[in-house]
């Protein structure tokens, strides 16, 4: 498995609180703005979608690629970040 980014480590290290969606690994400024335009302005809102997709990697990556034109790596990075956060805090 590849090493995780600093952004990933910081996100999974503490409760999500009111963090913006851009705080999630794999979600930069462009994808973050696309998510905000679709109503996913906070990390917890994207987490809700992640949970609605039953934490399923394939479903989530397909959804985020379709919804905001993320590439597979961005989808996988954000999936892994949300999954590890859930494993630690839920």
Automatic annotation (TrEMBL):
It is found in: Nucleus. One of its GO terms (biological process) is chromosome organization. GO terms for molecular function: DNA binding. InterPro entries: BAF (IPR051387), BAF_prot (IPR004122), BAF_sf (IPR036617). Keywords: Nucleus. GO terms for cellular component: condensed chromosome; nucleus. SUPFAM superfamilies: Barrier-to-autointegration factor, BAF (SSF47798). This is Barrier-to-autointegration factor-like protein. It comes from Phallusia mammillata. The lineage of its organism: Eukaryota, Metazoa, Chordata, Tunicata, Ascidiacea.
